[in-house]
Amino acid sequence: MDDDKTADQHVIAAAHHLVKALQARTTLSNEVRRTLADLDIHLAAMTEAKEDETTSLREIEGRLKSAQTKIMTLHSDCLKIWDAGPFELHEYLQNVEEIRTIIVSLENMVSNKNRKQNRLANQAHIVLQMAMVRLQEEVINILVQSKQCFGHEYVSFHSREEIVTDEESMMVSIEDDSADGTSCMESSRAESEECIMDLVHPGVVPHIKSIADLMFASHYDKEFCQVFIRFWKDALHEYLRLFCMQQISIEDVLRMEWTCLNFRIKKWRKATKNVIAFYLPSEKNLFDQILGEFGSVSSTCFIEASKDAMLCLLNFGQAVAIGPLRPERLFCLLDMYDLLRDLCQEVDALFCENHGNFIKMEYHELLKNLGDSAKAIFLGLGNRIASNTSTTPFQGGGVHPLTKYIINYFTLLSEYCDTLRFLLEDRIVEDSGGVVDELARLDVSSEFQCPLALHLQSVASMLESNLDKRSNLYKDDSLKHIFLMNNIHYMVQKIKNSKIRSCFTDEWIKKHIVKYVQHEKRYERITWIPILSLITGYEKSGKAVLKERCKNFSIAFEDVYKNQTGWTIPDIELREDLRISTALKVVHAYRTFVGQVKKSLSDKHIKYSEDDLEKYLLDFFQGSAKSLNHHWRR
Q1: CB–CB of 96/128 below 8 Å?
Q2: Its Gene Ontology molecular function terms (predicted)?
Q3: CB-based contact 190:216 (threshold 8 Å)
Q4: What pTM was estimated for this model as a whole?
Q5: 630 Cβ partners below 8 Å, 6+ apart?
């Protein structure tokens, strides 16, 4: 102001000086006349500009008043403008745009410190600021009303068979909780061809974009982004709650009971699949529709809106990955690994910008950790078998729970062969000679180069070694061979009839068929040769010897009957085959003996007929001990 006042004083002084100079002269030179003419033109132009500016400000004031009145009327008439309808929102945006245009016009005027100009500018800014606050509320209102239902069952999973273990026997049961037996790996890959869903009604997108364009043009871009990000961040967390995926600490995950954790993992898989394959691509598409014209703003806002939910999912996964390396966890880890590996391309596409790199890094780190943990459990299976020992023989000589556990474990692993082969590809064997020696000790052919097959055969050999040690706990050698026959037969049948057979070769199958048949023959030899010796080689025996032989055979048969009816052969076909084989030998020998004895002795000395023996042999290996009458008539 002081500078302007000083300048005015200089102009006034110069004007007085010019007037005095002109009064002192009667004639003017051409040069003086031209200078005075220029001065006259300049003064006229200044006067005209002043008049135009006054007219322009008057016009702007009228436009401002009209737009402000319409805006305030809509404010007072409508609690939410969108609720009144799209037309009212369009009218509101037009008037706010008018305010913005007025501000631009005032800013483009030559600054002459006009009080009215400043007043109008301040008034326009106040109205614009008020309108921007209202538009933030309108964005939220439109989104709330038009948000589409995105069902949490959009992608369904079928659980694979579960292995449930207890601490002592390592396994209690194997269950299938799926309705149709479809593996989750198969169903997880059966994706819908169209993965972009409408998160809001398509009809409202242009209206939201109009608000965004106006707020960005008015330099309220941060305010729009804040409300837009906050809404979708909350919406995504609400969606995750459908899957029980609230924030949970790693410590809480590690403390969870297995049943609870297994349930959570299934929910996690569904949530992760839905969020990455469907929800986030749909959300990114919406962000691009509304903010795509503003450069990197769209991707930045998308990452801000989605990062917390992604980190929630990834943190849960990391907690599972670092948990105890127990066998029952392997299938969940492989399911999680398969899922993340299938979704890698989607994640890389969603978070391709630099500011999304940290999510990609966390994602790939989790994928690696899940793979490492799964591989460690798989490769440690043999050690668990070796450490599973007992000092008590398994009652009845049936199929041991450990055998069921391991072989059913194998059959379930058949669903993951490709994944396991991939994980084992980078396994480095530092001492290849030592590995070959170990395989030779376990009687595993190293010619089969697939690491998965080699390890499965190695584990099977460790299981056989464990069963051999358990068989030595039986005092009865016959029962020892029944036990080994049952277990090796179970291994062969399960492996032969499953997808995992490809890892065991025909040679392995044939070799183990021979093994259980050998145990069957050894059982027959140990059990029945001593008994049959009582009724053979009698040709030159007298009546007293024949009577004693009849008596001793009956007693021996009754003892075997009492013991072996309590033994078990679970496989019906195997049980029948052994009964038939035994009957052919025993009944045939007994029939011949009885035929000869009847020539010398009366029927009262022969306690059992051939039909009796055949009938009683049917009671063997039923797992329910029975007794025959030991009373012997002399």
Answers
A1: yes
A2: phosphatidylinositol-4,5-bisphosphate binding
A3: no
A4: 0.77
A5: 555, 558
